[in-house]
Amino acid sequence: MAEIDGATLIVRSLKQHGVEHMFGVVGFPVVPIAFAAQREGIRYLGFRNEQSASYAAGAVGYLTGRPAACLCVSGPGMIHGIAGASNAWSNAWPMILLGGANDSFQNGMGAFQEAPQVEAARPFVKYAARPDSVERVPYYVEQAVRSSIYGRPGATYLDLPNDIIVGQADEDAVEWCPPCADPPRSQADPAAIERALEVLKGSERPLVIVGKGSAYARAEDEVRQFIEATKLPFLPSPMGKGVVPDDHPLSVASARSDALKGADAILLLGARLNWILHFGKPPRFRPDVKIIQLDIHPEEIGTNIPAEVGLVGDAKAIVGQLNAALEAKPWSYASETPWRAELAEAAASNKAAVLAMEQDHSAPLGYYRVLAEIRDQVPRDALLVCEGSNTMDISRTVLPNYGARERLDAGTFGTMGVGLGFAIAAAVVHPDRKVVCVEGDSAFGFSGMEVETACRYQLPITFVIVNNNGIAGGVDDFDRDRVPPTVYTPKARYEKMIEGFGGKGYYAETSEELALALKEALAQKVPTIVNVMIDPKAARKPQKFEWLTR
Ligand code: ADP
């Protein structure tokens, strides 16, 4: 009678359902799971903190459409892993958090690192469970995988007591599940498709907003076909960038505020009307704007303002339906209208204001010069990870994306500290492409130790630290007995860290130094840090509205 242990069952089941990556930090009781992963052909990467490992797992889910697993020890490790589960919950990305737990026969006794883990995970996950026997482990793994990708994607949690991990089962008694298929791509009601097109045809000032739901759905071909057939002006959300290339002539991203404020009908393709889109309300939107809302999650339709039309289902399938309807009855928005002219004028004036700052080579440098240099040097198909407050916001306008799922940032949760985990995930998923991780110095500090992870696994990521000595701007010097809350060590030499692990570091203060440092860093086969000092008082271009609509 052959026996199989719980750790092998967990990993073999994950692998069977298409889980290819596991990130984590090992210790009691999960060590056997990490070794089983390596044995069974799941790529395991050991991180320095569960937070980053869990952020990386969410990013793999977004980039590939299949969840990755984040492996955490019991108690504190699992609690740290909730960071990534909550980020995935907020972004609607799939991932599986695996939390080791004390032996179940010690429950309630004050066992080592005993904690209410299932309860702690619950608010942030679509599914949280603890297998009740070794034999039934595959059943729970299948539920965790399927729940993470069916419907609105999200995190799931499996609580794994030591006695399940090291426990044995008779192989014949194991209940295996067939591989979990990709989620069905559900279509919208055909009447709603007709109605959506009618609303667009009746609009004088239409707009399409492309969100990361379209990117997740891999709807880039359909969305691009739709935009080109209808000639509708569009703008992407931060991570919707690249679904249609940012240099597409119909993009009105440079006139974002004017486009949102002036549109009388908006087709939302997988984007929520949350804080990122100012809730769809005045003063950022017209009070009478008609929203045509496409989302896989029926409860999302009508959130914050009633939808004129709800298109419930998968973005790839539904935009395909819109395209089919347009092929049967072609229509496009007129090429010369006052709305187009208004948007073109706003875009031109915004571009001119930004151009002047991009071309300002004087030291100390500003954000726009630094980001423009990065833009001019990175390969067209690079994956760009951007975080930090101003660094991230300005990068959205200065750093273009030409393909879907090529930008990762702080996202819906506005999580700072995600960048290094995201960059590692991107490098693992796309070993053939360059990953450039642009970080504010504050954002970098949350998980800077993960540069050791990048070095250990030979992931040639280029980290660029846009260093302003603090949170939203530090100072050059201060009284050490009264350290201001916003400052970090002035001119900190972050690039020296990576040298200790086998990477290469560069430091720049001038435009010329930056250009040279970037050129060398991007050519390296090892991970690199380019630490570029900017003016601690450097700022964004003046905005028409505060960044947070209240
Ligand atoms: P953004 O940050 O780009 O504005 P959000 O994260 O707010 O985007 O919204 C993305 C939306 O996309 C979510 O409401 C989610 O339910 C939805 N979504 C996820 N997957 C799909 C899919 N396959 N098809 C359609 N919508 C999807």
Please give a structural write-up:
With 550 residues, the chain is an alpha/beta fold. The protein contains 20 helices and 19 strands. The strands form four sheets. It has a six-stranded parallel beta sheet with strand order 3-2-4-5-7-6, sandwiched between helices. The protein has a six-stranded parallel beta sheet with strand order 15-14-16-17-19-18, with helices on both faces. Strands 10-9-11-12-13 form a five-stranded parallel beta sheet, with helices on both faces. α13 packs across α14 and α14 packs across α15. It is globular, with a radius of gyration of 24 Å. Bound molecules: adenosine-5'-diphosphate.
Instruction: Give, in spatial order, the strands making up the sheet with the most strands.
Output: 3-2-4-5-7-6
How many strands, what sense, and barrel or not for the largest sheet? Answer: 6 strands, parallel
Overall mean confidence score, pLDDT: 97
Strand content: 15-25%
> Which fold name fills CATH's third level, the topology of the largest domain?
Rossmann fold
Shape from CA axes? globular
Q: What is the name of the CATH architecture of the largest domain? A: 3-Layer(aba) Sandwich
Structural class: alpha/beta
